[in-house]
Amino acid sequence: MFIVNDRADIAYLAGASGLHLGENDISPFQARKIIGKGTIIGKTIHSLGELKNLNTQERIDGAKIDYVSFGPTFKTKTKPSLQPLASEELKILIKKSKKLIFAIGGINQYNIDSLLDSGINNIAICRGIILAKNLKTTVNNYKKCLNKVS
Fold first, then answer.
1. Looking at the predicted structure, is the pLDDT value of residue 69 above 70?
2. How far apart are CA 52 and CA 33, in angstroms?
3. 91 close to 118: Cβ distance less than 8 angstroms
4. DSSP letters for 68-107
């Protein structure tokens, strides 16, 4: 599966499987017009309020979101201005969301188990893989952690 971050035009031209939208990107409604009905759309949200707003937006404009990512779950250098979600807030978000959920932000091999204990079983990792000294071993370690909860 190939998901493009932020850019609906590139997702469309590349024939991507999906598009991931952040808070400052175009609306899911606009994105759906560009990429079409058969493409996955995901959206990052940072709070329960944003989840409610997303659900309301879907009802109003009809642009379906296929998955959401909640984050950051831990402090991250990728988005240093954002505060991590409290563990209890994450558990509430997991219960309230009717969509496929991914945790994102600051996830590494030292904190992944505590995250998975909260009920998450899908993760998105950036720095934890990009900065790995041994990419294959690192990815396999993450897979082992995820296999424990799936």
1. yes
2. 23
3. yes
4. EEE--SS--SSSTTSPPPPHHHHHHHHHH--SEEEEESS-
Give the architecture (CATH level 2) of 3-149.
Alpha-Beta Barrel (3.20)
Helices 87-96 and 48-61: crossing angle in degrees, nearest 10, is: 20
Tokens, residue 14:
């590349």
- Peptide bond between residue 28 and the one before it cis (omega within 30 degrees of 0): no
% of the chain surpassing 70 pLDDT: 99
Distance of alpha carbon 20 from alpha carbon 3, whole angstroms = 7
The residue extents of the domains of the chain are 3-149
Asked whether residue 13 carries a pLDDT value surpassing 90, the answer given is yes
Written as six digits, the tokens of 102 are 């991914």
